[in-house]
Amino acid sequence: MTSIPDLIRKKRDGEALSDAEIKTFISSVTNKTIQESQTGAMLMAIWQKGMVDAEIEALTREMMSSGEVMSWPKAWAGRVVDKHSTGGVGDKVSLVLAPALAACGCMVPMISGRGLAHTGGTLDKLESIPGFNIHQSTAQIQEILGSVGCCIVGQTEMLVPADRVLYGLRDTTSTVDSLPLIAGSIISKKGAESLSALVLDVKFGRAALYKDQESAKELAQLLVNVANGLGMRTAAVLSCMDATIGRYVGNSLEVIESLETLKGRGPDDLMELVTTLGGLLLMMTGLVPDQSEGRRQISDAVIGGAALAKFRAMMEAQGVAKETAGRLCSAHTDYYSILRKSEHQVELRSPEDGVVLDVDGLVLAKVLHTLGAGRSKAGEPVNHSVGAELLVSVGEKVEKGASWLRLHYDDLAPTPDQMSRLRSAVTLGARGETRRRQNLVKELLLPK
Ligand code: URA
């Protein structure tokens, strides 16, 4: 068997590793028989020399098999689905999409992540609901799927242990931004969920990891190819992440906007993403003949209340008291009788009459991050109540002195510099100028 130094040398010299060699590397990571320095060196060699498609597929397959691979009852065959997003600002799609898909007959074992830097995380949002437990074992996930059809949970200890090691070392060796390593990390976890179909929301724009559509497309195409190679029908959506998704940013505020959406009062951009991603999944499972019928069914589930009923059942199944879940899902909008409200709110007012031309999601997210809404290091706590409500949308007219943003904060008060950055997040044009909301979805990559 080739030694680890030989494998590192081979990759360092730009040669492709064989399936067996990749298996040796990943099993030594999983069994902890490799030294950390060797793993770091291999990661750097992969970062520098890249991998051909066959290597990436082998890497992903071996990572997937490093731990438990979930298995589902035969009766669910073809209907087990999930979504992955590369991360955005105000991205609450999962909270609406998972229950909408369940209402349309899918099984959704949604394994989500936490926020890091300026991007939010679904698990942090859900944990702003008192009692919501994101820690569920595989047996509990199966039970919740059987009774509700969807759950949103954190990665279990048993799932893809090799990724836990590699992900930590990628951080400390500056090898996070390697396409083969990103693909292996994302798709191995989805593979271990034994999905029938997967949809990826790959974002580009100023508040996204990738600033331009072409580089986002390169990642999206790779992810689609690798996931389809592993037997999951997979499509990707390339969506623009310049502004915020919806009007609310911050953990509990995003729960409120998700509940409003599930009550049929959601913003157009959020509904566009939910129906596009959901429509693709319904089409790929074969539950509907085409994407437009899929979109229609997802939209009906959201507008008609079937998705809200699923969300309520999911909350109860994941530990939320019946009364709490019932009150959050009732027609009343007094969410703060349940969710904690920040100590302070301050409104920013428009300096002049005009038309909103642009909202900069990145500026907004970075200020909220420093006020405690996000974390800089894995494991840090977040303040669920910190956030912002945009009170205007692109294209809307505003009068001088009208409130355009409401900031929610606690003990970390915004500095004058942060206030001026927040003010700069909204660009006003002269009265009479027009600007229409652009669709967020710019391109679809379908499975061959
Ligand atoms: N999400 C992951 O799980 N892994 C990556 O490498 C990037 C995003």
Would you give an account of this structure?
The structure is a single chain. It is built from 17 helices and 13 strands. The protein is of the alpha/beta class. The strands form four sheets. It has a four-stranded mixed β-sheet with strand order 1-4-5-13, sandwiched between helices. The chain has a four-stranded antiparallel β-sheet with strand order 6-9-11-7, with helices on both faces. Strand 4 (197-204), helix 10 and strand 5 form a beta-alpha-beta unit. Helix 2 packs parallel to helix 4 (53-64), helix 5 (93-103) packs across helix 13 (291-303) and helix 5 packs across helix 14. The chain is globular. The protein binds uracil (URA). Uracil (URA) is lined by residues 182, 185-186.
Task: Name its key features.
alpha/beta, Transferase, Pyrimidine Nucleoside Phosphorylase, Chain A, domain 3, single chain, Pyrimidine Nucleoside Phosphorylase, Chain A, domain 2, 17 helices, binds uracil, 448 residues, 45% helix
Summarize the structure.
Helices cover 45% and strands 15% of the residues.
List the helices and strands and how they pair.
Elements lengths: L3 H9 L6 H12 L5 H14 L3 H12 L16 E5 L7 H11 L4 E4 L10 H5 L11 H10 L2 E4 L7 H12 L6 H13 L5 E8 L8 H17 L3 E8 L7 E2 L1 H15 L2 H18 L5 H13 L2 H12 L4 H8 L14 E6 L4 E6 L1 H13 L13 E4 L6 E2 L4 E7 L6 H9 L1 E4 L11 E5 L3
Parallel strand pairs: 1-4, 2-3, 4-5
Antiparallel strand pairs: 5-13, 6-9, 7-11, 8-10, 8-12, 9-11
Uracil (URA) binds next to helix 9.
